[in-house]
Amino acid sequence: MYLQTDSQTIEDLRLFSKADIQGIYDIYNQSFTRGGQAIMEVMFKKPLNNREAILKRSSIIAAFVKLKTAFPFDGSLLDNVEKYITFDDNLDGGSKPVLSEKETQNGVTAVVGLFHILRRYLVSQELGSIKELEEERHAAASLLQDPAFAPVFNEQPDARLSFGAITAFDVLIRVKEKRKVLQLLQFIYHIDVYISVAQVALQHGLVFPEVHAKGTGILKIKGVYHPLLKNAVANTLEMEPSRNLVFLTGANMAGKSTFLRSFSTAVYIAHMGFPVAAASMEFSVLDGVYTTINLPDNLGIGASHFYAEVLRVKKIGQELSEGKSLFVLFDELFRGTNVKDALEGTIAVCGAFTNRKDSKFIISSHIIEAAAVLRKKESAAFYFLPTIMKGAVPEYTYTLQEGVTNDKHGMIIINNEGILEILKQGNKGGKRLNRQL
């Protein structure tokens, strides 16, 4: 049911905000309710690996895009309902044991009002036009028609309730029928998520991918870009069933990591059934997505960066050996070891990857010597991000091209920054360098 992934991938793709860095989740989350935010967070942590489930979710969101609908419930009303209905769930040693009379009255009044709004919404033409939500709509309507809730609809939503009615409703809502009320809230929270994502799709011009059956080996993304970047450069990459490995080269600062994040994020988000930042996309459903962009040393087991890379490759190998179809990304594979070992390891691992036709692999590397060997593999494709030299100043197009490049401009950048001259000035220059850094 769910796509396999891990915390390393979630960190690599920066799905959630960290410190002052915005996350992908923040773009899509325009939910009005705390419940909606919680559901969307789960969707981000648990993408789907079932074509029917992906199509159902994307079709619902696309329907709301077409309708250009607004969330039909008042956020403050729902906030009152949430606080009231979950009061008993949040008790701790420092909480008061009971709701006050005023809090109970406000909570009951909010639930009564919400039920009336929900009943009207469930029979609305707008909601009825979304066939993919038919089952959930009927289930919610059936809950509202439960005889236990008849007294709620005997009251007007803005009527002033007696103390006796408040007490009776409180027992009904928070004790006897609490489970059903929570189920109705879950329906509303999902509507909140769908409408939130639909509004984001309209605002940012996101597109819904075409979803193919698992095992068909299709992955085509045209005009993909990173949704968090302003004026992002779009790129296109198509991985046919017969070309399952991309070997990516380019100088530092040429945009490799940004492209890799953009492409991988689209693959990940597409498996959520959400629209993606691209001109168009087609993909075959996969079993898992694993990226390795910023792999830290594993200090917990005393592992160096290289050994952490080896363990990462081993994990991927174990998943592949079980017959799973994966999207796998390594940014600068085996950067934690010497050039000779990196070359041999890159050739061996990439060569093995090319034999797994049911999976897709993107490997970026500075070890261009590996490309000469990998060219013998029919399923390997080669792309690079170019650097254009304007005198001694490198300029970057950030536009993907076919082929291999041996661009290396590290010393040019070091010289352009005048670092060696600063260091030659002795201690005084060193202090100035520290201030600049």
UniProtKB/TrEMBL annotation:
Keywords: ATP-binding, DNA-binding, Nucleotide-binding. This is DNA mismatch repair protein. Residues 243-431 form the DNA mismatch repair proteins mutS family domain. GO terms for cellular component: cytosol. Pfam families: MutS_V. One of its GO terms (biological process) is mismatch repair. Gene3D superfamilies: 1.10.1420.10, P-loop containing nucleotide triphosphate hydrolases. One of its GO terms (molecular function) is mismatched DNA binding.
